[in-house]
Amino acid sequence: MKTLKDVISLKFKTSESEGVIFHGEGQQGDYITLELKKAKLVLNLNLGSNQLGSIFGHTSVTTGSLLDDHHWHSIIIERHGRNINLTLDRHMQHFRTNGEFDYLDLDYEITFGGMPFSGKPSSNSRKNFKGCMESINYNGNNITDLAKRKKLEPSNMGNLSFFCVEPHTVPVFFNATSYLEVPGRPSQDLFSVSFLFRTWNPNGLLLFSSFADDLGNVEIDVNEGKVSVHINVTQVKKNRIDISS
């Protein structure tokens, strides 16, 4: 395909911070890749470069953050020549691509949810998307519906399921006055804890526990946006350990 205009839209939700949402490339050096990197949305686009290097078409735009929250997010990409509107959850970003070309030449297939291994360093370092997509529309074609009715030729869909698998994690919301107290484990030499958290607040207590027999305590908190661990031990000379990250 050689297009002057493109409109690509879809919705996705995932708990993964990395993954290719869609990819297409051509023999003239053209490509378009939309992917998640560090839970941000990155669009890489090239409408063509020349071998002399005087025309450098690669363009990369990043938008959004914390997109691995397993909530639905909507994307619309509208291109007319070198002018691009990238809309994420109703927030639109306008930019122009580098280079001098207006057409996007995609000679090979377009893949959603990953990219084929081409032997290039860029292909084997990228992860496939893991999560749900819906309402995939590419230049007027309802890709989701065509895939479900197996009307895409040629196609290699792999192990696709036409329903969303929900994660088995159970989140807990704290409102700054609530807390969760659980019984300790006496006569244990090992203290081990792990959890995931997300907050917009720069300060807050994440965990506190006293050791038995008045031997001290451990405290984990967020202080000015950094996680700090404080361990107080009463019966040794160096009775306080502070770790910040």
Automatic annotation (TrEMBL):
Residues 1-164 form the Laminin G domain. SUPFAM superfamilies: Concanavalin A-like lectins/glucanases. This is CNTP2 protein. The lineage of its organism: Eukaryota, Metazoa, Chordata, Craniata, Vertebrata. The gene is Cntnap2_0.
